[in-house]
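Protocol step 4 of 6: record predicted structures for both targets in the notebook before any analysis. Target 1:
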Amino acid sequence: MIPLKRKTIYFMNDNDESMDGKEFDSFLEHEELSEEAEQVILLTRNEALFIDDSLSMLIEREPHDERMGTVRPMAHTAGLPAPVDLLEKIGKAILFTTDPENKGEPAEVAMSETDLYMLREITHSYIRIGEEAVGFNLKRKIYTLLYSTEYERDKTAKRLLSTVDIPTVPLEDEAPSTSTKMHKETDI
């Protein structure tokens, strides 16, 4: 079993020939451009532990095998297969939030849009750990990062439109209609 990372850089081209420097530089430029922007989510200890319990490492079954698998059997858990880099982020958040030196402070975790959608899939709003509404809090944080800009824009537009006095009765056109105009030209 081989843990699957999101990015694998091969130094060979499709013909199993070494890539020259120019080809490889072009490949790297494309990879850098295709990376998703990351946003920071603050995770409490319970949130990080819940996420970690709900994810399973995504692995390749055999090298060059197109089928993917997980370390834990997915039929017995409601978890989600996740790449190693997401597991690393959550693991570091657990270490941070459980470190006594950090005095219970939440961990700042950089998440891509894909990471956020993956977390959305495992987060149920009814999940509580102790007194903490972990599921609800995670849903709010995830959706805030994904949609707050559009939500605030739409809310502002709606508020502005509600202050505009738009007449409900259609206004009559002040210019004469074309049929009236034609009628006057034909009158002798």
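Target 2:
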Amino acid sequence: MQKEMEERNIHLKEQMMFSELLERIEKRRRKIHRVFDGDREAAEGFGGLFSDLQEEIKRCEEESPEKRSPAFDPEALPKAGELLIEGERLCLLGMQEKDRKDYLEVEKDVSFFKEAFSDESFLAKIWEEFFRKNRAYYSIFNWDAVFLGYCGILNLQAKPWEMAIALKEKYQGQGIGPESLLLLMKALKRRTGERIFRGRVDADNEASISMMRKIGGKAHGISEFFLHGKKLQNYEKKNEYLVDRRLKELAEEFQVEPQELLGHSLEFWVELPE
């Protein structure tokens, strides 16, 4: 029953996000003036539209409490294909072109709109996003050289660094996520001296919450992720009925009102020892 409730809540939030994204880019779409001729061009046009949606999501992900001053110099980090760190059963390597297919498979697994992945222009745009300036992503491999997923830092100029991770579906639930993030933090601390890391997760994503706790994450309030202002207030009011006992317990831990967890992300901060 609890699993069904979690999946329903996540589905409702995905619907909200997609509706809001469509509304946000409507003005941009009106300026394009495309005339589609046949199914192929229509599909390509839609793929381009969804690329804009994806870009909006990435902008939300990169929001941070503070910008670094002076700016961080990424020269201390490994280049494409170079080893960041190795553990007992995993290793992290700088992402490289030959991993493209695997990366896109992971993105499709975690996407709420898989139909867009049939468009090549959309796939090219997604791949380019991984190499955007001030991002640092690393491929996760096991010792049989099997690609499991990726992890990394969303914005190297943010403070503290926010971690990201995504795994192929068949490798989820095996402890790979926590192990990968612990390796990531250990390696970055050794190379840069950074000790504090940030993780943001949805209040209904119990697996991600559990992962944050396993790597030492502590409650650090909440943050706006996608909706802001009046739209955020209206969304939380409209969906108050989704607040259950578990959300009330989380709200107490994060010292916020339960309905605020409906439209915000949970903030977990991890502080490594000196």
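Step 5 preliminary note on target 2. Confidence is low (pLDDT under 50) at residues 31-46. The beta strands are 66-67, 83-86, 90-94, 136-142, 147-153, 158-159, 161-167, 196-202, 218-224, 264-271.
Proceed to step 6 after PI sign-off.
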